[in-house]
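Known limitations

Structure tokens in this collection are predictions and should be treated as such. Users comparing against experimental data should check residue numbering before alignment. To illustrate the layout, the record for Tetratricopeptide repeat-containing protein is reproduced below. The input appears on top and the generated tokens appear beneath it.
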Amino acid sequence: MSRVRRLLPLLGCVLLGGVLLTLYAPGGLLRRDEPPPTPVGWSPYDLAGSIEAAQTHLRRHPDDAAVWASLGNMYLEQARRTTDAAYYDKAQGAFERSLRRPTGDGEPYIDAVIGMGALANARHDFAGAVGWAERARKAAPFRWALYGVLTDAHLELGQYEQAETTLRRMLNGRPDLASFTRAARLEHLRGRPGPARDLLRRACAIPGDPTEYAFCQGQLGELAWNNGDPRTALAAYTQALAADPEHAPARAGKARAEAALGNTDQALRDYATAVARAPSFVVEYGELLEHLGDEDGARRQYAVFTAQQKLNADNLAMGTFEANHGNADTAVRYLKAEWKRRRSVEVADALGWALHRAGHSAEAAAYAVRADALGGRNALFAYHRGEIEHALGHSAAARTHLTRALSINPHFSPAGAARARALLAEKP
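Generated tokens:
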């Protein structure tokens, strides 16, 4: 299973959760018992139309800080839906225009401050996101959006206790879709899929627009997939697409589940549709093509990924790709640089795997143990640890972790699952 794909659920929480919350109440502090007013210029049903309407308004009223902040959040949502990083620069410009117009008490417009934090998370500047969120907390401690930004940043920095404390404050203040989906993420990291599922179902039951419902169902699909249940995952992804046919993560998830269930032709069609809408799934699509023997098709998808990264370099994504499909030493350089920035379980696992692929399995073992211990029930982490133990000659430990990987999700990766079975079939 591609690391690029596995990062999307958390990236979805960062972007969608941040957007949903940072659109609260232009002006004034949002107290626990205050309902969020309708955001300025925002309609999730017609995002392009809302952006156009906001732009038209701002041509006539260029000093409207509230609409500039809402426009910045709309651009963030466009980035989430399209995976087009160009919208990040547009969002930054809108937030900066909003920040130039202080509120009546002389403070910067608080939605723009929180929006800058959400933008920093989206750009993987997690330390910067903490700074923006803390600035917002000093000015408006009851604006619950800022705690979502903080939770996401702490998670990515590997600061799990801080993330849990911050999220508890957010849940106490405003239990809603954004806080429930983050809580589900933490439960999954603890290896507790049952509570995670309950939280996601509560989120899905909250009245909202089709995009929000599709997001929730997509997260339920991810949870089912990660726990080795492709049929339930397929049903959830299908519900997500019924609500929002343009939801690319659900389309890719549907393809993944179909491939696991043997419906390869439909899986390939759905992958092609998904990558046309969101090119971030090209590596996953390429890995299936490669597994099916279509080397040329896989290379074309990998070339698309490489071209993307030239425009929007991501150390974690590039390091993972190089470890699996390129130069392992290059992968180690990317991932050691990323480890200096953040120490999440995702980066620990990726760095351990890259070191192993580069022939440094003894060094890799410490990172694999860290990721596996903190990463909950994760088949890919268990598989990587099993491979590293095998390379070190620890046969019993290797079999334990490889068996565990397949028991969590026997479909976690076309190539990885096949390799795990082959190693287990070897005589001890």
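For this record: Residues 3-274 form a domain with the Serine Threonine Protein Phosphatase 5, Tetratricopeptide repeat fold (CATH 1.25.40.10). The longest helix spans residues 3-22. Please report discrepancies through the issue tracker.
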